[in-house]
Each structure stands twice: as C-alpha cells, then as structure tokens.
Amino acid sequence: MSILAFIGRRLAAMVVLLALLSLLCFGLLGLSPGSPEQLLLGTRPSTPELRATIRAEFHLDEPFLMQYWHWLTDAVRFDFGVSAHTQQEVTAIIGERFHVTALLAVYGLVVALLVAIPAGLYAGVKQGKPGDQVITFGALLAISAPAFALSVLLLYVFGVALNWFPVFGAGEGLAENIYHLTLPAIALAAGSAALMIRQLRASVLDVTNQDFMTFARARGLSPARIWTVYLLRNSCLPMLTISGLVLAGSLAGAVIIEQSFGLAGLGSQLITSVQQLDIPVVQALALLTGATVIIVNLLVDLAYIVIDPRVRHPRSAA
Amino acid sequence: MSQIAGQAPPAAAPRKRRRLGVSVVLCLAVLIPIVISAVFGSAIAPHDPALQDPTLGALAPNGTYWLGTDDLGRDIFSRLIAGAYTAVAGPLLVALGTTLTGTVIGLLAAYRGGWFDTVAMRGVDLMYALPAMLVLIIAVGVLGGGYYVAVVLLIFLTVPTNIRLVRSAALSQKEMAYVESARVMGLSPARIIGVHILPNVSPTVVTNFLLDFVGALVGLSGLSFLGLGVPAGTADWGLMLAENRAIMDLNPMAIVAPAALITLTATAATVLADAAYKRISQAGAQRD
C-alpha cells in the first residue's frame, strides 16, 4: 500500500468520523428530555414572541436534517449561538476558559514526559532490579488510581496538610497560573506518565534484544553512542504517539481535574452546562473536543510516517 | 547466546511463581472483604450508614466512629461498607455484559471474517475515536438516568476493546493446525469456536473481564464524583469523595479512605488480571 493511498484512506475515515460526531452532537438537542424549544428558552420567561424567535432562529419547524445543516454550517464558522442559560455567546464562553485547559494540558504533558522518560528508560535498562520494581509498582498504582481520587488526595496532602499549594482556582497571570496548576497537572499527568513508563520500559527491553544492539556492542561502539543513537532513538519513537494522544486525551481528562480543583476551564464548564442542560454550550464543547481528538489521532499517524522510515517502507524493513 | 537464554528461565521460574502467589493473595485480601461488604452491606456495618446526627458534625476518627463522621454526623466506616455495593454491582454488570458481547463478536469476527469482520472492525474503529469518559459525562448528564444508564452506556463504550483483543487472540488460534483438523473432521463452526477456540483465548477473556471491571469502577465512581451518577445521599465512594471535600481539614479520613479504597480495588483487580493471564496461559502451555 502506498503512502498516498494510506493518507487518503485516513483522511476519508476522518471526514466520516467528523460527520458522525457532528450528527451526534447536534442530536443532543433532540435526545434531551424536554422540548428543544423549552431547552433553548433556558431560564428566560416564556413569552409567545420569544418562543417564536427561538423557533425561527434554530429553524425548529424545519425537518431534522435541515436543522442539522443550518447548525453545522454555523458550527464550522465557530458560531455556536448563545448559551441558553446566560445568553452569552458560546464562542466567548469558550474563549474565556480555553487558556486554563490548554495550559493544564501542556503542563500535564511536560510533567508526564519529565517523569516518564528517565523512569521508563531506567526501569528498562535495570530490568528486574529493585529500582525497576519500585518504578513498575508506582506505575501500576498511578495507572489504577482514578484522577479524581488522586486529585483529592493531592489537595489534602499538599494543599491542606502541608499548605504548599493553593486549593482553589487558577490564579492571575502566567507565573501564578503555573503555581496554581502544579497539583492539577500532576494529577492529570499521573495516568499518562504511567502509560509512558510501561511503554518505554517495554520498548527498551525490545530494543536491547535486537540483533543490531548486539552487533553495535560487538563492533565496540561506545556505550554513549549505543545509548543515544540506538536505544534512545528506537525506544522514544512511541513517545511521540503517546504524547499526541495524551494531549488530546487531556481535554477529556481535564473535566474531572478542573472540577476537583475548582478551575474555570472548559472541563468544568462542560459539567456546569451539562447540569444546566445548556445544550448549545454542550454541543460546542463536545464537537470541539471530539474533533480535536480525531484530528490529533490523524496527525500522530502522519508524523509517524515522517519520523520512522520503517513505516514508510514496510517491505524493505521486513 | 541462545543456550544462555535457554538456561536462564528454569532458574528464574520458581522464584517468579512464588512471587506471583504473594501478589494474588494480597489482591484477594483486598477484594474479598469488599465483595462481602457489597453483598451484606449495612447489615454488617457498625452503624446505620444513613443515620444523621447533625449535633456530631464532622468528627475525627475515634473509638465509636473508627473513621470519624461526615458533616451530617454519618459514620464514614459504615458508609464505606454500604458504598461497596455501587462499587461492585455496576462494574460487575458492565464486566459481564462487555465480556460476553465482546467475546462473542470477537470470536465470530475472527472465525468468519468477511463482511461481518469488516463491519465489526469499522464499528470498533469508530468507537475508539470517541473519548469514553466524555461521552459518558455528556450522555448521562443530558439524558439523565444516572447510575444504571451509565452501566448500559459503559458496556457499549467498553465492548470495542474487548472485540479487538478477543479477535486478535482468536485470529492467531485460527491458523493453528488443530482448528484446521477440526474443520476437516466436519465439526460445526459453533463447536469449533465454542469448544476448541474459546478455551485457547480464555486468558484474554478473563483478563478482559477484570480490566473491564476496573474501567467501569473508575468510570462509575467518577460520574458519581461529578454528581452525575448515583442520587445524592447514596453511600458511594465517588460521591463521598466529592461530598467530603469540604470537611477534609476536620476529618481527613472522610476523603483519604474512599480514595484509597477505589485505588486499592482498581489496583488489586489489575494485578489479578495480570496474574490470571499468566497462570491460565501457563496451564494451557503445560497441557500441550
């Protein structure tokens, strides 16, 4: 299969996925309990004029697919209407809160990589030694501990008992943001760091057993060269995939973390809007998050082709 | 080189098996009391888990209330015992439903191939693209229905992983000589799949079951933590964690204990899954 055919197929699959995702998001309005009209009315007093305006604005008298089409054409221009609860522009709500979630996601990824790369490499090289066992067990705990349990524990230990970190909000300005987001970033990073450690450890073990490693040692190459050129390059490749997926997954993971730490990000907004049945906001957040995950997945696959020549020429490698 | 590699395992194997035993015993020591609590619930709790005594307020652990009380004066220890029900029942239902459907579809997809396989795998790819927790939060939040709607949704969201794992395990079995000879002997596909292939993919199925349980425990208690799962007032580990955040300075055990219990249960089931996989595949290998 040529690379172009592969890319073409992946692009086609992505378009289908995005179409389905948008249909699901739009369908939320019809699936929710209560009439769409009532939902979109929100907390406003019900007057015949307002009801008529809403019916016209959301094309509620047209068939479902036409409504969907109107919604979708607006959505691709980032026009998601106004919140049923506050009448604020949905795009403005998202704009206000985006930076907290984005910072949290990037911070979480940095923490995860900083912990996982040394720990994973060490565990892989020292396989079976006490250091490896400690790291492996730690990774097991981190992978099993749900983010919300970890968040509350971190809050208690470092926020309340030791009083090192603030327990609420994201603070003002970048420096304060970073300080305030440290515990949330650790909570967010724990699970993905554990995944990375396992992956790295496994690929180090895999690479060490390859023939080219034996030959490299037999040829008398320096340990430094073996480490950087052979071991690191080969075992860190999967980190790229994981990093992309972790970053995209952070958007979903942030829901629980932001709720635990009282951060005004997209995740906590989603919970609030879901509880208020503020459908326009939920639709927008669901569509944007879902689309981000789908697009990042594609980009990660494409990046793999660029970085790993073996994926580009599968025949010659085999 | 290969001789050295060949000599190493026998020396390492007995030590490994003994260590496996210890971890399995530890896991069971965690899981069995939790299952007992889930079955008997408040009957074995020292206090009524729902009994409020506002005059007490949030007490720190003491002789009467081993893990203290929450702000309504309810006994934390008793609520943890009562909360084992939602921590076990829902995840168990999810694990059963998912493993059953996933195994059947996965086996059929592998054995029959063709359009069934294509349709199943495209469906799996589709579900993979959606972040499960997000779907759960939005669907349960918007549709309502709480805990049991979440159980049904979780089955749908977890099935793709199971299908994929069972399918790939079954695919490698399908190429084996014993399947070919069974087919030549004229055995029915149902018999080949059920009697011959299924036992050989059983390590995967058992592991799936336990890991589905873990995933569902984390998902369901997470939903309850967000206030979208069990109704307010229910004794549930996730909900307790959310409710007692406000009193963590008065009675830290009110949040430490449920957090630790969820983590311990999840870890124990994960380790057990790992051990079960090794044990069952070893038993199969020895029989050959």
Automatic annotation (TrEMBL), chain A:
Any single biological process term in GO: transmembrane transport
Locations listed in the record: Cell membrane
Annotated TM spans: 104-125, 137-158, 178-197, 240-261, 281-307
PROSITE patterns (UniProt xref): ABC_TM1
PANTHER family given in the database record: DIPEPTIDE TRANSPORT SYSTEM PERMEASE PROTEIN DPPB-RELATED
One Pfam family this sequence matches: BPD_transp_1
Protein name in UniProt: ABC transporter permease
Record-linked InterPro entries: BPD_transp_1_N, MetI-like, MetI-like_sf
Keyword Transmembrane helix carried by entry: yes
Sequence similarity: Belongs to the binding-protein-dependent transport system permease family.
Membrane-protein topology: Multi-pass membrane protein
GO cellular component: plasma membrane
Keyword match Transmembrane helix: yes
Keywords from the named record: Cell membrane, Membrane, Transmembrane, Transmembrane helix, Transport
Domain ABC transmembrane type-1: 98-300
From TrEMBL, chain B:
CDD domains, per the entry: TM_PBP2
Keywords from the named record: Cell membrane, Membrane, Transmembrane, Transmembrane helix, Transport
GO biological process terms on file: transmembrane transport
Superkingdom of origin organism: Bacteria
Residue intervals passing through the bilayer: 20-45, 88-111, 123-141, 147-166, 209-233, 253-277
SUPFAM superfamilies referenced in this protein's UniProt entry, alphabetically: MetI-like (SSF161098)
Protein location: Cell membrane
InterPro entries recorded: BP-dependent_transpt_permease, MetI-like, MetI-like_sf
Membrane topology: Multi-pass membrane protein
Principal location: membrane
Ranges for domain ABC transmembrane type-1: 88-273
Keyword RNA-binding: no
GO CC terms, sorted: plasma membrane
Sequence similarity: Belongs to the binding-protein-dependent transport system permease family.
Name by which UniProt lists this protein: ABC transporter permease
